[in-house]
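Query form — protein Fatty acid desaturase

QUESTION: What is the three-dimensional structure of this chain?
INPUT:
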Amino acid sequence: MKQAPEIFDYLSREEIATFGEKSDLRASLTLAIQLALFAGAFALAILWPNPVTIVLAILLLGGRIQAFGVMTHDCAHGAFFKSPSLNQFVGKWIVGGPAHTPLEAYRRYHLDHHRYAGTPDDPDKWMVKNYPIAKASLKRKFIRDLTGQTGFRDLVREVKGFTWSGNGPTLVFHVTLALVLTALGAPWAYLLFWAARLLVYPAIHRLRQISEHGVVPDRDVLDARLNTGTTIPRWWERLVVSPCNVNYHLEHHIFASVPPYRLPALHRLLVERGYYRDHDCIAHGFADVLRRATRPDETTPVAA
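ANSWER: The structure tokens for Fatty acid desaturase are given below.
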């Protein structure tokens, strides 16, 4: 997305270059944390199996699928590791597999989203173009997500479109995960991933989409402060809904080359310098996102 000239009133070109610096160490640390949480979710359910730990494990796994998708996105931008080859390998084989996201196909599609954000040609606009929507309509969407209808639909579409070059990493991931859990004496735990993928992740993904472009003042203009949103999450929302700083979506649209681990500092500096002043583009928690995403049902009387 082309930058509006005003951004250079708030940041120097030298500061922008500094924010864009990649770090293999910080990217590796981010990846390691998410892999540890992924393994920890299975360990929690396997070592202390009961309804509470199983539900917690499924929620944690849903958040990790989101995290793997976010890191795939960052690798697609070349904005995670300093090394292009590491971005390619990790994005395709390490995080793209569990995210069910073919790196190359995703990159082609997603870069068009950045190129055309704020225009009728944005390929993602159809997902959020009708927001805000009636509360009853939003409730039906989340019911479909949480009952597996959305996840099953997406899985069928994925299976029908399977190719080795695109979906091979996902198949390798599933075979490896099933074998590892079987070797650990807990083959049943493999079902936890599918519970997260089919019952939790679709709702998380929808909520993230809404927060990014569904609760904005005007998605038909080029200014990112008007067509894109940022959300400041609570700690548990960060763990489940917005891992890896994906909540700083407005900042990402301003500078797509800035790695995720530098987005919080970029956000703080832009706030300090007044870049967002007079723009209602920052939500505080995902309850605020849902409030902004809904309007009164048609049957609900509106006070005069």
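ADDITIONAL NOTE: Confidence is low (pLDDT under 50) at residues 300-304.
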